[in-house]
Design goal:
Order of helices and strands: HEHEHHEEHHEEHHHEHEEHHEHHHH
Number of strands: 10
Shape: globular
Radius of gyration: 21 Å
Number of helices: 16
Keywords: Transferase
Helix content: 25-40%
Oligomer: single chain
GO molecular function: transferase activity
Strand content: 5-15%
Distance between the termini: 27 Å
Protein name: Glycosyl transferase family 2 protein
Length: 403
């Protein structure tokens, strides 16, 4: 929904690395912009794309029941989850009918990635072993049959999957493979860091691409900050697609629990938070909680480790398509459309949504969070509520003291 500034980079990356060749898109009826112009670039590149509306995957009584903009946040949340689950199920059924194989169900801020470093692989693995020992991780480090491909290699992902399946590696055998997520925060890289080894024709774009701009991430194995795993599924080996209960475990019978050990995984998903402007751009149904300003700062500030493993993709992309075509395909990356206004006000501005009685952008249950000294619940809720209390105690502090 209104993600064109992210969709551009997402398409380029996955077209090159996977290689993505079939895409199903659900256009939210509340979207103010259309993805069609961006998608048409890739249709001309041979990518098969279908754009769906709600009537194509929701029951008529749901699809025709339009949620007004001023509806309660919980109502918007419920509709958001219903749409996602029904869309995912319809996607799997459609890809099965198309006789496709591997399908991934991810958002435009998520990038499917090798959980290794291809270049200087041995040095990387030695470093990972040192981290494993220091932190006393219990999981056993995954051992591949061969060093993994580089993201620079076009179409390397599917070859990597097939190779490790043939080699009998247990991680790659199930028809549903769980991929842990790694949350990249909003701490900006320096220009030198963002431009490092980027082909000269793309340099003006480099600091607008999330995969080059944001290098710092939350600690591995921290499911509070990184969130639950997502999956890729081989629909050619799946006969039935029951109603999806969890986006993180789409088919319970064949998908493992969504807290997959990062240490023993061959794939992961880089999840990019992005700037506040990008994060708040959509009129997201989750904005009362996960999409609040507090939610952004909570995830943005805790990102001290660095990972550059994804960066070679841009070099391979330019080598494959040439400088001029690459610039054309990446045009608009990270740039909001004209007339852009964030869906919420930044709390550092005078129009402060925390204290406004007219804006429906306050955190869901904020009074309840601030009214007690301790939260009882899951680890994520406890950590977030604790952060919110501390954040509001120092609400006038500049962000420079946080990020």
């Amino acid at each position: 929904m209104d993600d064109n500034h992210r969709l551009t980079e997402w398409l380029a990356y996955h077209y090159h690395v996977l290689p993505l060749r079939t895409l199903l898109v659900a256009v939210d009826p509340r979207s103010k912009t259309s993805p069609t112009k961006v998608l048409n670039r890739w249709r001309r590149m041979g990518l098969y794309i279908e754009e769906w509306n709600d009537q194509q995957f929701l029951k008529p009584e749901i699809a025709n029941n339009i949620i007004p903009d001023d509806a309660e946040l919980q109502i918007k949340r419920d509709r958001h989850r219903i749409r996602q689950k029904n869309f995912y199920r319809k996607c799997l059924e459609t890809f099965k009918r198309m006789e496709r194989t591997w399908v991934t169900l991810i958002d435009t801020d998520e990038f499917l990635m090798y959980n290794h470093r291809a270049e200087r692989y041995e040095e990387w693995e030695q470093h990972q072993q040192e981290i494993h020992t220091a932190r006393r991780y219990k999981g056993r480090r995954i051992a591949l049959s061969q060093p993994p491909p580089s993201p620079a290699d076009p179409g390397g992902m599917i070859r990597y999957l097939h190779r490790e399946q043939v080699a009998g590696h247990p991680y790659f055998q199930p028809p549903c493979i769980s991929c842990p997520r790694l949350q990249f925060g909003a701490k900006e890289s320096t220009r030198d860091e963002a431009y490092h080894k980027v082909p000269p024709p793309i340099l003006p774009t480099a600091d607008r691409l999330d995969t080059l701009r944001y290098r710092r991430h939350a600690e591995r194995q921290d499911f509070v900050k990184n969130g639950l795993s997502k999956s890729i599924l081989d629909v050619s080996r799946i006969d039935k697609f029951p109603r999806i209960q969890s986006l993180h475990r789409p088919i319970k019978e064949i998908c493992s629990a969504p807290w997959k050990d990062e240490w023993s995984s061959g794939l992961r998903i880089n999840h990019y938070l992005g700037s506040w402007e990008a994060y708040s751009f959509r009129d997201d149904s989750r904005r009362g909680g996960e999409r609040s300003y507090e939610g952004w700062v909570f995830k943005a500030m805790d990102a001290e480790e660095t990972d550059d493993n994804i960066r070679p993709w841009i070099r391979g992309f330019v080598k494959t398509h040439g400088p001029d075509k690459s610039k054309e395909l990446l045009q608009g990356s990270g740039l909001p459309p004209r007339g852009y206004q964030a869906a919420a006000s930044n709390p550092n501005n005078n129009n402060n949504y925390y204290y406004s009685n007219t804006l429906n952008w306050t955190i869901l249950f904020l009074d309840e969070i601030l009214g007690v000294n301790e939260t009882k619940g899951n680890d994520n809720r406890v950590a977030f509520d604790s952060f919110v209390r501390d954040f509001h105690l120092r609400k006038n502090q500049s962000l420079e003291g946080i990020l």
